[in-house]
Amino acid sequence: SQQGEEDPQALSIQEGENATMNCSYKTSINNLQWYRQNSGRGLVHLILIRSNEREKHSGRLRVTLDTSKKSSSLLITASRAADTASYFCATPPSGGSYIPTFGRGTSLIVHP
Amino acid sequence: DAGITQSPRHKVTETGTPVTLRCHQTENHRYMYWYRQDPGHGLRLIHYSYGVKDTDKGEVSDGYSVSRSKTEDFLLTLESATSSQTSVYFCAISSSGSYNEQFFGPGTRLTVL
What we know:
The complex is a heterodimer of chains A (112) and B (113).
Chain A: E1 4-7, E2 10-14, E3 19-25, E4 31-37, E5 43-50, E6 55-58, E7 61-66, E8 71-76, E9 85-91, E10 101-102, E11 106-111
Parallel strand pairs in A: 2-11
Antiparallel strand pairs in A: 1-3, 3-8, 4-5, 4-9, 6-7, 7-8, 9-10, 9-11
Chain B: E1 4-7, E2 10-13, E3 19-25, E4 31-38, E5 42-51, E6 54-57, E7 64-70, E8 73-78, E9 87-94, E10 103-104, E11 108-112
């Protein structure tokens, strides 16, 4: 079973707009990671937020983590056509297997 | 890109034939993983390795076996391929466990007819 689930499944926006996608998970985690996958390519790591952090920034990316709600959000500001990709959250469970499990992803399309 | 390659990149085979996919890394990372990616299922872990000759099963390990005789190579074998194993297979590596990012290979598209 998948630990993390992204929402929405698909998102379509115009260039310059902000894109927000969410991840919910089921069990306690050590950290939460976000990855991007361009069509036909492997996943690329974007950002990692630890369980004791609430917010983290990297360039145009802003990630929040709410462990009480078991949820995270990824915000891409001022989106570009090149941001078109699928975005996945990965959640390594704490207290056992360290292997991160991936959700089904959010497919983001940014129209120029 | 991290030094991780997969071979072959594309393969078409027939039901019942054995298939071996290779993942090769030049990063000397301890952990290696095999995932499959299917529409509607996202990425699912097949097997992983935490060192030479140390492997363990993932979520969807039935019908697959792995071997790791060297740090740099992680092989995934389908003993007798079935059409349900048609998928895109990704190898990933990481230097340690859950606090490190995974680096992914380019993927292998496998079609079982």
